[in-house]
Specification:
The complex is a heterodimer of chains A (105) and B (189). Chain A has 105 residues and is mainly α. Chain A is built from three helices and no strands. In chain A, helix 1 packs antiparallel against helix 2 and helix 2 runs antiparallel to helix 3. The longest helix of chain A is centred in the C-terminal third of the chain and has 32 residues. Chain B contains eight helices and no strands. Classes of the chains: A mainly alpha (105), B mainly alpha (189). The interface between A and B is large, with 73 and 84 residues.
């Protein structure tokens, strides 16, 4: 049986991978995918805590409700973010973060 | 979940995650995210969160990643392969990940570990007393099955009714916002 710390370690490593992806990659779509990885890593922690801290002998469904809300908000966020990326590409013809420097002082 | 399945699915998940960063082509990255999420859904199902596991497959790999692939192919990104890699962000990213992992291992080695409480027929039957007699949830629990979707629906429509409706408004706002954002501004010029 895998213990709680094993799940938290897997979740933390996935979060670390997502975080380093946001820093390393220059393609804004891949940066966005790495954000999704970080959200999913948080979901894994939530589900693991829900399973390992039972309420009345059942998993704690409040944790899984939060996962449900996170997934829905992430779907809305992806739709809006990709629309912004398409609008950005239309006006600048690039999606590389090192070429998008017009806000740089 | 047996331990070997946990290690199998978490390895799939972590390799998929690492491949997202390693591939230069955005389409390969998107397919690696799909691999990662399939492993993650396996972990969810191993944690007896069947609904969340199915949602992970349906919403993330079925809808979100398909949207990503549409956008990647719509923008037709090809010049990614030729760019020189900047060394500073690479070092910063790897350093950040290693520092995070070291901290995590340090904290987890000092926290008391927990093993999963049993979810066998006996534990489920004793949980049936907390639900009204004659409901589907109580009947399934007495049979020794975990009515995961029923329990989630029960929680959603009793304790989380208002947030659920607010979520509906959020999705509507997002839909309208996406249409406005991606509309070509015909009237302005």
């Amino acid at each position: 049986m895998a213990s709680l710390n094993d799940y938290l370690l897997a979740s933390g490593l996935l979060f670390a991978i997502g975080l380093s992806g946001v820093v390393i990659r220059r393609n804004i779509i891949v940066v966005f995918m790495c954000l999704e990885l970080m959200l999913s890593a948080a979901n894994l922690s939530l589900v693991a805590f829900s399973r390992f801290n039972p309420v009345n002998g059942l998993p704690d469904y409040n944790g899984q409700m939060l996962v449900f809300f996170v997934v829905t908000v992430a779907a809305a966020e992806v739709a809006v973010g990709l629309a912004i990326i398409v609008a950005l590409y239309r006006s600048r013809q690039t999606i590389h973060t090192d070429e998008l420097t017009s806000l740089k002082g | 979940m047996p331990s070997y399945l946990f290690w199998l699915f978490s390895t799939i998940m972590l390799i998929g995650g690492a491949a997202v960063i390693a591939f230069r082509n955005p389409v390969s990255s998107a397919l690696s995210v799909v691999t990662c999420f399939v492993g993650l859904a396996g972990l969810f199902i191993g944690l007896s969160a069947f609904f969340v596991g199915i949602i992970q497959i349906l919403v993330y790999t079925g809808a979100v990643m398909v949207l990503f692939l549409f956008i990647i192919m719509l923008l037709d990104l090809k010049d990614e392969q030729k760019r020189a890699k900047a060394l500073a962000p690479l070092a910063a990213g790897i350093g950040l990940a290693i520092a995070f992992a070291v901290q995590l291992i340090g904290i987890l080695s000092r926290t008391p570990d927990k093993i999963a409480p049993p979810l066998d027929a006996e534990a489920l039957a004793s949980a049936a007393g907390h639900f009204n007699e004659g409901t589907k949830i109580a009947a399934a629990l007495k049979d020794g099955r975990l009515p995961d979707v029923h329990l989630i629906g029960h929680t959603l429509f009793t304790q989380y009714n208002l947030p659920f409706q607010i979520l509906g408004v959020l999705l509507l706002v997002a839909t309208v916002g996406v249409v406005v954002l991606s509309k070509k501004s015909v009237g302005s010029d």
